Amino acid sequence: MLMKKLYLITGATGHVGTVLVDKLLKNGEHCRLLVRGGYPGTLPAGAEACRGDITDIDSLKPFFDRGGYDYLTLVHCAALITIASREDLSVWDTNVNGTKNIMGLASLYGVDRVVYVSSVHAIPERPEPEIITETDSFSPELVQGQYAKSKAAAAQIVLDCAARGLNASIVHPSGIIGPGDMMNRNHMILTLRAMAAGKISIAIEGGYDFVDSRDVADGILGCESHGRRGECYILNGHYITVLDLLNTIREMRGKKPVRIELPYGFAKAIAPAAEKLSYIFGNGKPVFTPYSVYTLNTNGRFSHEKAYREFGYAPRALTESIAASL
User: Fold this and answer.
1) What single-letter DSSP state applies at residue 287?
2) Is the pLDDT of residue 122 over 80?
3) Are the CB atoms for 226 and 311 separated by under 8 Å?
4) Is residue 146 within 8 Å of 88, Cβ to Cβ?
5) Which CATH superfamily is domain 5-177+210-236+301-315 in?
6) Whether 239 contacts 323, CB under 8 Å
7) What contacts 280, CB < 8 A, 6 or more positions away?
8) Contact 202, 190 (CB under 8 A)
9) Domain range list for the chain
10) Residue 72: helix, strand or coil by DSSP?
């Protein structure tokens, strides 16, 4: 008799969640999606929707109902991402308190397998040229920025639950690009599209590691099948400087390369004013902020060797991911 399996997906309408659910449904898997009330979009055909909010623990109980399924896999993707300077209490409430609720109920209801989608930002930075690898503990005090602090705190919650017996593992994607951003909330993709439209023709000194959403989805499923309880896995892609990124996009659009690169010190000095102006004259989604400038000048060299060794994770070419983002 075949085992009846159900995937429970939080953050199913987000960037990674959208790609993951699409892949699971195409593979014939059963999926239950946690969706907040008032979600305006269309959910994928064949998926079961369950209304709830990860910050409201009572609303989550129907989401965990086994309902005749033999095996439950939970993929916790839901998170609020921000690069803004303004403190947003909902970031901590969603990313930390929400994760505490989800993991607590996963333990209570006997979920068989859990994969938590964290971020490389939860991992403390190491000085260049050292390559950043996985850690076995997390602390908000060791990272910078409200998003990173919240993801570090949440990752430690997951590890604590794993130590108490929950079959949970953590994956840490780097900067996610690629298809699936249906809500147009990914600030990096907005930046890539601005570059492609010619709205950005000057680079900032620095760079970062970017990974394709499809590779992250593959890594999540690889971790589900072969990852070990209480272990963490970096899912990065490829490092690229901002100047090379800009010129790669310009080449794709048949435009001449640029050579102008703002020094880090200058970009850091003007970033606060640029962020304020984006709120006044822009769309309220700043992409040039003190935190984004800071991030581009941190050590962005990560290793996915552990994920490759344990479940064959291998990211595709960066140019393919860039093209799919435009």
Assistant:
1) S
2) yes
3) yes
4) yes
5) NAD(P)-binding Rossmann-like Domain (3.40.50.720)
6) no
7) none
8) no
9) 5-177+210-236+301-315
10) strand
Q: What is the CA radius of gyration of the chain?
A: 20
What is the tally of helices (H) and strands (E) in the chain?
Answer: 12, 12
DSSP assignment string, 143-171: S-SHHHHHHHHHHHHHHHHHHTT--EEEE
Q: What is the distance between the alpha carbons of residues 186 and 120, in angstroms, rounded to a whole number?
A: 16
Query: Which of 129-142 are b and which e, b meaning 16 or more Cβ less than 10 Å from the residue's Cβ?
Result: eeebebbeebebee
Residue 196 has which token pair?
Answer: 């492609």
Instruction: Give the pairing type, strands 113-117 and 168-173.
Output: parallel
Starting from the edge strand earliest in sequence, which strands make up the sheet with 175-177, in order?
175-177, 207-212, 238-241
The angle at the Cα of 122, spanning 147 to 125, to the nearest 5 degrees, equals 115
Average pLDDT on 26-32 reads 97
CB 101 within 8 A of CB 76: no
Report phi then psi at 230, rounded to 5: 80, 5
Pairing of strands 238-241, 207-212: antiparallel
Decide: residue 311, CB within 10 A, 0-12 exposed, 13-18 middle, 19+ buried: middle
pTM over 0.90: yes
Q: Which residues contact 220 (CB under 8 A, 6 or more apart)?
A: 16, 20, 75, 115, 117, 171, 235
DSSP E strand stretches across the chain: 5-10, 30-35, 48-51, 71-76, 113-117, 168-173, 175-177, 203-204, 207-212, 232-235, 238-241, 261-262
Query: What 3-state class would DSSP assign to 172?
Result: strand
The tens digit of pLDDT for each residue in 216-243 reads 999 999 999 999 999 999 999 999 999 9
Q: For residues 10-30, give the mean pLDDT.
A: 97
Cβ–Cβ < 8 Å for 242, 259: no
Tracing tokens 């959910």 back to the chain, one arrives at 43
pLDDT in tens, 177-217: 999 998 888 999 999 999 999 999 999 999 999 999 999 99
pLDDT score recorded for residue 108: 97
CA end-to-end distance (rounded Å), the chain: 46
Q: Identify the CA nearest to 179 among candidates 75, 11, 321.
A: 321
